[in-house]
Amino acid sequence: MRTLMSRRLSLACLAALLVSGTAPASELLKGRARWDWSLPESKTEGHTFTGWLTGGLTIGGDAGSAEEKRPKLGTWKAVGPGEFELNITKKDHPLYGTIKIKQTQPDPKPAFEGELLHKGGKKEKIVFKLLKD
Predict the structure, then answer these.
(1) Based on the structure, what is the number of domains in the chain?
(2) Are 90 and 106 in contact (CB under 8 A)?
(3) What is the pLDDT of residue 58?
(4) Are 96 and 8 in contact (CB under 8 A)?
(5) Which of 3, 29, 55, 112 lies at a CB distance of 3.0 to 4.6 Å from 128, suitable for a disulfide?
(6) CATH number of the domain residue 58 falls in
(7) Which residues, 6 or more positions from 95, have their beta carbon under 8 angstroms from its beta carbon?
């Protein structure tokens, strides 16, 4: 119960940053947040995934479709204020491994930076931006 409440609170905080009072977060995000990620060292950018209140991460799928109907990418959890840990379990994905990020830029365009620890042990800088759906 505590973990679920923590996840909801974390996503609610992100939603508040995202919408900055224009509309209720529940109307814009519909229980999810879309993220843009890049790996500056690998010059990989322009990819997105979706984080859900359940702690799930998905990639692709039809616009407006439910989490269960989208391909699973992994899971996420809040580990502190503005800090998150993502576990990417899709083996053929470039982010396969564990990611730890911290918020580096507040509203109106929230940004996060951290480290991707690939399953093979290689570490790489990663940057995230929260997108408005």
Answers:
(1) 1
(2) no
(3) 95
(4) no
(5) 112
(6) 2.40.128
(7) 37, 73, 86, 88, 116, 126
Instruction: Output the six-digit token pair for 64.
Output: 């407006």
72 is written with which tokens? Answer: 């699973």
State pLDDT tens for residues 44-84. 887 999 999 999 999 988 888 889 999 999 999 999 988 99
Q: Are 66 and 58 in contact (CB under 8 A)?
A: no
Confidence grade of residue 17 (pLDDT, cut at 50, 70, 90): very low
Q: If residue 111 lies in a helix (H) or strand (E), which one and from where to where?
A: strand 111-118
Distance from first CA to last CA of the chain, Å, rounded? 28
Q: Which domain holds residue 100?
A: 2-131
Do 104 and 115 touch, CB atoms closer than 8 A?
no
